[in-house]
Backbone:
């Protein structure tokens, strides 16, 4: 039982560098794809914050 547990722990190393790089590439692609939408959303949010801050 302990031997199986030890071999399992040695085999599982977590995420590798390739997986992390792929996740970053996908995130960059999504940001590039929705760049204008993100700009409009952030602009609208900041405008609402500014308007509401002036009311206080």
Residues:
């Amino acid at each position: 039982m302990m031997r199986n547990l030890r071999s399992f722990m040695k085999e599982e190393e977590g995420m590798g560098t390739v997986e992390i790089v792929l996740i970053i590439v996908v995130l960059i692609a999504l940001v590039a794809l929705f760049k204008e939408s993100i700009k409009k959303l952030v602009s609208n949010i900041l405008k609402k914050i500014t308007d509401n801050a002036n009311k206080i």
Summary: Residues 16-55 form one domain. The two ends are 66 Å apart (CA to CA).
